[in-house]
Amino acid sequence: MKPTGVAGVIVSNRFLTTKGAGSLRQILHNQYAIKAIWDFGDTKVFDAAVLPAVMVLSLSNNERNRNVPFSSVYMAEVETETKTKEYPYVEDQIEALNHDGVVSSSKGNYRVKKGLLTYNSSPGDLWRLQDSESEAWLNKVANNTWCSFKEVGRIRVGVKTTADNVFIRQKWKSEIGFEPELLLPLTTHHVAGRFRCNNKAKKSILYTHTVVDGKRIPHNIDDYPLSKKYLESNEEQLRGRDYIIKANRKWYEIWVPQSPLLWKESKIIFRDITERPTFWMDKDGTVVNGDCYWMLRDNSNMPENILWLLLAVSNSHFIEDFYDIKFQNKLYSNRRRFITQYVEQFPVPDPTRKESKKIMCLAEQCYKESDIKKRSHIEDEIDHIIWSIFQVSNLSLIRG
Question: N or C: which end of the chain has fewer CB within 10 A?
């Protein structure tokens, strides 16, 4: 680019908010003068499926990239009570950038936000749109935050077999004629629910690992004749996983088994991609599949029942606002990604407060309640307390 040149760049908006793009953000910030950023999100401004962001930048002339204009345009879900409100009409997403707030179009409503580029401490951190209202909201949340999720426990991914058709089945006896000895119940995203899993039948996994003298090792399949018989019938496929052999692992092993001792612990499990947060408690000792994330109370200094508090916060409408304001990463159809780098930053209120203790009781009650309508009422009560404990309001409704 010429010294006086200006570049317009169209790129996936993932570079704004994914941890792996931190080096790219650092380079862009340090080596270029960023004139403006527009995040067009899920509005399909282009035919391509990617969620686009547009940047205008020039070669840096010792500019510090302060006060970089940042705008976003996303499809807007308007609450029922405000659907009759008339919003400014725009022809397209580009014209929408002339407004701030909700606008209407032939394709639906857009929510336009305007502000400045900001990040936590380093340009390599996640980039987000800063406006006075949202920053004040986040500051108030921070003032009422006791710790974050990652201080309670590490967020883990589920097991990865790299041969699911061999290790995972719904009905082993009817499908292969017998049940291997090493079967354990398996949680997948198919049984996902809020506070508790749904009533769909769980699959089972032939789990190949155990712990001896504190060390995780594969089972000796000679001790389990039915499991050995089944695995040997699939030996050709399993040995075809060259990386298993090269890593000096047994040919019949699950590739990523996690720690066998942890499955019996009470744990929170959650889905990755979903419109509403879907977190539930598992007290049945199931193995978690790789299509879900999970966490325990790893920090023994935390109250024993603190996972109920985390479960309530993570399923609340409050956390949807927190996610949208803090991370600003939505996919099509209003879906969010609940991955480690986001969930580990979720805020936790002081568990010694009477409101927190009430929330924990209600969360456990919601887990035990089988009646959907009764659970919905409990969730509403949890929501009300969580909004009040963080001393904030639903910012999307205020803007709408």
Answer: N
Element (H, E) at 309: helix 306-314
Please choose, from the candidates 121, 179, 137, 186, the residue with its C-alpha nearest in 3D space to the C-alpha of residue 159: 186
Residues 6+ apart with CB under 8 A from 298: 152, 153, 154
φ, ψ of residue 293 in degrees (nearest 5): -110, 160
Look at 29 and 398; give whichever has higher pLDDT.
29
Q: Give domain limits for the chain.
A: 6-130, 131-153+297-390, 155-262
Burial of residue 312 (number of CB atoms within 10 Å: 0-12, 13-18, 19+): buried
pLDDT at 397: 53
Burial group, residue 354, by CB count within 10 angstroms (0-12, 13-18, 19+): exposed
Taking residue 173's Cβ as centre, other Cβ atoms within 10 Å add up to: 9
* Helix, strand or coil, per DSSP, at residue 347: strand
Contacts of 374 (CB under 8 A, 6+ apart): none
337 has which bridge partners?
Answer: 273
CB atoms closer than 10 angstroms to residue 98: 10
Q: State the Cα–Cα distance between residues 222 and 215, nearest whole angstrom.
A: 20
The string of pLDDT tens digits covering residues 209-254 is 999 999 999 999 999 999 999 999 999 999 999 999 999 999 999 9
pLDDT of residue 332: 79
DSSP letter for 160, please. Answer: B
What element of type H or E holds 57? Answer: strand 52-59
* Residue whose token pair is 């899920």: 42
Give Cα 167 to chain centroid, integer Å.
Answer: 26
Gap between the Cα atoms of 287 and 266, Å rounded: 11
**Which contiguous run of DSSP H or E holds residue 327?**
none
- Residues found in the chain: 400
Tokens of 49: 């499926």
Task: Return the DSSP state at 200.
Answer: S
pLDDT at 60 over 60: yes
Each residue's pLDDT tens digit, 140-165: 999 999 999 999 999 999 999 999 99
Its pTM stands at 0.85
